[in-house]
Design brief:
Helix content is 39%, strand content 14%. It is globular, with a radius of gyration of 21 Å. The site of pyridoxal-5'-phosphate has 15 residues, from helix 3 and helix 4.
Length: 374
């Protein structure tokens, strides 16, 4: 405890969230234990159906993680060696990792200055005869410019994979993200807006062939037990995670509402002092992260830390400069907007149970810092 009566303010407080929903979750886990049915059972099937419905897709396929959701999707779309996939350099590493996992080549295109999402005009410039797909990332929970991305993709016969790992529930012109491209990929990593008690993920699609391929591939390439018509992998979403997620799904819209309200309060109080997230009409933001942008990012992070407030940088090194991707031959200066942001963005604590009292303290600390550093 500090003098303010609470301990360090974390980026996300899963313990506080759990205190609200522990009883129904415990009950749901007990049901799974009583059934002794731990893999590919009733809860998983129910979750796939509920999430497909929530997102607005015909099919949902539970998998072991968001990374696997991306890898399995690329594979199901027939993308492999010799193919190029265009994506953003300003995302979590897994987005590009999945492309490499299927043997294809990641090709980066810079982001829009205002939204931090991939710039459709830049995507267009990167298209070659080997380009097969675009992975668009709805970064921080904010919908990317899907109209223009879909137009570029349609004009060039490209597939679109939506990396919606940070954006479950986000709406774009009345649709939910993950239901607009060929495939939607979701992560239920514990700190995500819909988080499991371990790793878990989901693919959504309207395409029956893609659905059947992923369904088979996630389970050792088997349609019928012990008969394998393809070399697949083990990437299933287990029943305990499905049970947890089914309960948490009931709270998702309320939790997203709280996130948006907290974001509104940050924006209202900080928008004249630093760059706050811009949300265009019709393009929702569900604030998996709330990021501000400023020159003295590192100094503000230190000041927040000294005052008992966590903050984080998503992401400090764009993907084209990651050592693991050296072989692609990119260099500093190739994607100036992504590089600039990696030096300027700072994510502030945001989670459904963050009290206004704590948030006001965070805001005051930021305002004091900015007044001292004008
Ligand atoms: C944008 C993005 N893509 C992919 C992933 C990978 O998801 P997972 O951690 O479930 O493998 C994440 C989450 O960490 C993410 O934020």
């Amino acid at each position: 405890m500090t003098h303010r009566g609470w301990s360090q303010i974390p980026m996300v407080d899963l313990k506080e969230e759990l205190s609200l929903i522990q009883a129904p979750i415990q009950e749901a886990i007990n049901d799974v234990i009583a059934s002794s049915d731990y893999i590919l059972g009733e809860k998983g099937a129910q979750l796939e159906k509920s999430l497909a419905q929530y997102i607005g897709s015909n099919f949902g396929i539970g998998v072991a993680s968001g990374t696997d959701a991306l890898t399995l999707s690329l594979n199901a779309l027939g993308i492999g060696p010799g193919d190029e996939v265009i994506t953003t350099p300003f995302t979590f590493f897994a987005t590009a990792e999945a492309i490499v996992h299927v043997g294809a080549k990641p090709v980066f295109a810079d982001i829009e200055e205002k939204t931090y999402n991939i710039d459709p005009a830049e995507v267009k410039k990167m298209i070659t005869q080997n380009t097969k797909a675009i992975i668009v990332v709805h970064l921080y929970g904010k919908a990317a410019n899907m109209d223009q991305i879909m137009r570029v993709a349609n004009d060039h016969g490209l597939r679109v994979i939506e990396d919606a790992c940070q954006a479950i529930g986000t709406e774009y012109d009345g649709k939910r993200v993950g239901a607009i491209g060929d495939v939607g990929c979701f992560s239920f990593f514990p700190s995500k807006n819909l988080g499991a008690f371990g790793d878990a993920g989901l693919v959504t699609t309207n395409n029956r062939e893609v659905y059947e391929s992923i369904n088979q591939f996630r389970n050792h390439g088997s349609k019928e037990k012990y008969y394998h018509s393809a070399i697949g992998m083990n990437s299933r979403l287990d029943e305990i995670q499905a049970a947890v997620l089914l309960v948490k799904l009931r709270y998702l819209d309320i939790f997203l509402h709280n996130r948006k309200e907290i974001a509104r309060r940050y924006t209202e109080t900080l928008q004249d002092l630093v760059k706050t997230p811009e949300v265009a009409t019709g393009r929702e933001h569900t604030f998996h992260q709330y990021c501000i942008e400023l020159e003295q990012r590192n100094e503000l992070a230190s000041t927040l830390q000294q005052n008992g407030i966590d903050s984080a940088v998503y992401y400090p090194l764009p993907l084209h400069l990651q050592p693991a991707l050296d072989y692609l031959g990119y260099k500093k200066g190739d994607f100036p907007l992504a590089e600039r942001l990696s030096e300027r963005v700072l994510a502030l604590p945001i989670f459904p149970m963050l009290s206004f009292q704590k948030q006001d303290y965070i805001i005051t600390t930021i305002k004091d810092f900015l007044a001292d550093n004008e």
